[in-house]
Amino acid sequence: MLDGLSEIKVCIGYKLDGQDVDILPSDADDVARCEPIYETYPGWSEKTFGLTEWDQLPLNARRYLERVKELIGAPIDMVSTGPDRDHTILLRHPYR
């Protein structure tokens, strides 16, 4: 889905009334005043559809996923590269 984008923006927080916040506020009026803070990553032009190995992914795709892993503070066990079950990169068995 991200193939072909020249860049990918990831929202890493918000600015609310001049203050940086990491979590979107629950109050709708506060949300309306929030400005997203983005990190921008280079995209990739190579196709990833159907890939099954981490090393087959374009370097920029791997870097993007590594950063997502850092931001969420959790491992990435699987990467889906298409609609079929076998269009999956299994990095770690999720039930072990």
Characterise this structure:
It is a single chain. The longest helix is centred in the last third of the chain and has 14 residues, at 59-72. A hairpin with a 7-residue loop joins strand 4 (78-80) and strand 5 (88-90). By secondary structure, the protein is of the alpha+beta class. The protein is built from two helices and five strands, in the order E-E-H-E-H-E-E. The mean pLDDT is 94. The chain is elongated and about 45 Å long. It has one domain (7-90): Adenylosuccinate Synthetase, Chain A, domain 3. The two termini are 29 Å apart. The protein has helices at 28-33, 59-72, and strands spanning 7-16, 19-21, 35-42, 78-80, 88-90. A three-stranded antiparallel β-sheet has the order 2-1-3. Strands 4-5 form a two-stranded antiparallel ribbon.
The name of the CATH architecture is Alpha-Beta Complex
Kindly give the count of domains: 1
Shape: elongated
Which class best fits the helix and strand makeup? alpha+beta
Low-confidence stretches: none
Q: What is the averaged pLDDT score?
A: 94
Sequence of strands across the biggest β-sheet: 2-1-3
Which CATH class is shown?
Alpha Beta
Termini, distance in Å? 29 Å
How is the quaternary structure best described? single chain
CATH topology: Adenylosuccinate Synthetase, Chain A, domain 3
Beta-strand portion reads 25-35%
- Annotated CATH homologous superfamily: Adenylosuccinate Synthetase, subunit A, domain 3
Q: Major sheet, described briefly? A: 3 strands, antiparallel
* Count of extended strands: 5
Rg (C-alpha, Å): 16 Å
Give the number of helices: 2
Give the % helix.
10-25%
List the secondary-structure elements in sequence, H or E. Answer: EEHEHEE
